[in-house]
Design goal:
By secondary structure, the protein is an alpha/beta fold. The protein has three domains: about 5-140 and about 310-345, NAD(P)-binding Rossmann-like Domain (Rossmann fold, 3-Layer(aba) Sandwich); about 145-305, Dihydrodipicolinate Reductase, domain 2, CATH 3.30.360.10; about 355-440, Alpha-Beta Plaits. It is about 35% helix and about 25% strand. Strands 7, 8, 9, 10, 11, 12, 13, 14, 15, 16 and 17 form an eleven-stranded mixed β-sheet that branches. A six-stranded parallel β-sheet has the order 3-2-1-4-5-6, with helices on both faces. Helix 6 packs parallel to helix 11, helix 8 crosses helix 9 (about 180-190) and helix 14 runs antiparallel to helix 15.
């Protein structure tokens, strides 16, 4: 059969909000270019949305609009179901029902895949259908495709990414304007960068969902969000952002996955990154991902991590992939996680106490003789060596009196567990006057 005779792939959209609307718009606008790339047409034939009036305004007469998502799944003409509802609840049921009905699935739902991906990928494998999810991580940046296909010759050593635009916008504003977190969050909400309930973003959960998917594809392990270490930015102060800057670092919320001999690090937290690194200079709501491979070295992927058309770009790239492979035997398709399903590794996710990294500590201490000696002695007892110590008068930042001082200690690499023991002993000293700030530091070299 020639390409001209191949029937178009029929798509059903579940949800036509920001991303669904963008998908319809971009697919319509670039229809001819997409057909030339895919070798066949891709048509949105059905749209399910509870707000049918709004859906009809977007699609007009181009597609059938229904309120019931299950009507899309039940339609025998639909080849691919695009799930853009989000969350773990009804979205999971619909994705599994679509797979059971023999439909291929495209989803932008990182939360669903990070938590239930193992079950969903297994169901798809048993049914011989594809699940594609480029839009689930970093919006329009093709990072899934890069890891799964472009870098397939490499043993990936680590991945580190700014993969949540809301928190990166907040951190950029805190640094530029010297404002504290609460003030900037309100501004981010006013501008539409942060949701009315921003918990998933600011507590690091959204970035950890994405890091979980990146770790699975980078290292060929099952998705294991429950093993990830997750910290957000709610406790970060403008003081530490300012001190980090003086020391030559920027603070970014990073999702990090790193392969070690005895396991895999999977962690999301605020991180000091040297200013000279490109990723340290990613500002505003932009995303960026660094990947270190043994053959290629370091590669970086930068772009818009959210938004209607950037995310639609990724959804449609998945649709094109499915259109190209739809008639191919299941065994000759690119596996969902890039590794053959019977070849996934059992390498464990390391508990955070076992992770080795370097640290930035800030201590508000009494300005007395011998305080520093006691602190360095406690660190030495845990085998922690010091890279640098900087002292600042507390009133430089806070306006407090001259009987207190801020000590910043940068350490060399050490196990988190050892650092936590040292911190407990240091915090118990009567000369330590406030809770100690501990932030991890990554050279990303």
């Amino acid at each position: 059969m020639s390409q001209e005779q191949l029937r178009p792939v029929k798509v059903g959209l579940l949800g036509i909000g920001t991303v669904g609307g963008g998908t319809f718009t971009v697919l319509s606008r670039n229809q001819e270019e997409i057909r030339r790339r895919a070798g066949r047409g891709i048509e949105i034939a059905m749209v399910a949305d509870l707000n049918t009036e709004r859906a009809k305004e977007v699609v007009g007469d181009a597609a059938q609009v229904v309120a019931d998502a299950r009507a899309v799944i039940a339609n025998p003409e639909i080849d691919v179901v695009v799930e853009l509802i989000g969350g773990y609840g009804i979205a999971k049921a619909l994705v599994l029902e679509a797979i059971a009905a023999g439909k291929h699935v495209v989803t932008a739902n990182k939360a669903l895949l990070a938590v239930h991906g193992t079950e969903i990928f297994a169901a798809a494998r048993d049914k011989g259908v594809m699940v594609a999810f480029e839009a689930a991580v970093a919006g329009g940046i093709p990072i899934i495709k890069a890891l799964r296909e472009g870098l397939t010759a490499n043993q990936i050593q680590w991945v580190a990414g700014i993969i949540n635009g809301t928190t990166n916008f907040i951190l950029s504003e805190m640094r530029d304007k010297g404002l504290d977190f609460d003030v900037v969050l309100k501004e981010a909400q006013r501008l539409g960068y942060a949701e009315a309930d921003p918990t998933f973003d600011i507590e690091g959960v959204d970035a950890a969902h994405k890091a979980t998917l990146l770790s699975a594809i980078a290292f060929g392990v099952p998705v294991q969000f429950d093993k990830a270490h997750v910290e957000g930015i709610t406790k970060l102060s403008a003081t530490d952002i300012k001190y980090a800057e003086q020391l030559g670092y920027r603070i970014k919320l990073l999702g990090i996955a790193r392969r070690q001999a005895d396991g895999i690090e999977l962690r999301t937290h605020p991180t000091l990154v040297p200013m000279r690194r490109l990723i340290a200079n990613v500002e505003g709501a932009m995303n960026a991902v660094l990947v270190q491979g043994d053959a290629v070295g370091t590669t970086m992927y930068y772009g818009k991590g959210a938004g209607s058309e950037p995310t639609a770009s990724a959804v449609i790239a998945d649709l094109v992939d499915i259109a190209r492979q739809i008639d191919a035997p299941a065994g000759s398709r690119v596996p969902a996680l890039g590794f053959q399903s019977n070849q996934l590794s059992t390498l464990p996710i390391l508990p955070i106490e076992e992770v080795v990294t370097s640290f930035y500590l800030r201590l508000r201490v009494a300005d007395q003789t011998g305080v520093l000696a006691k602190l360095t002695g406690i660190l030495a007892e845990q085998g922690i060596s010091i890279d640098a110590v900087i002292q600042r008068e507390a009133d430089e930042v806070s306006g407090e009196g001259g009987n207190q001082t801020d000590l910043m200690i940068l350490t060399h690499d050490t196990k988190e567990g050892a650092m936590n023991k040292a911190l407990a002993a240091m915090q118990a000293l009567p000369t330590v006057l406030a809770p100690i700030v501990k932030l991890r530091k990554e050279e990303l070299a």
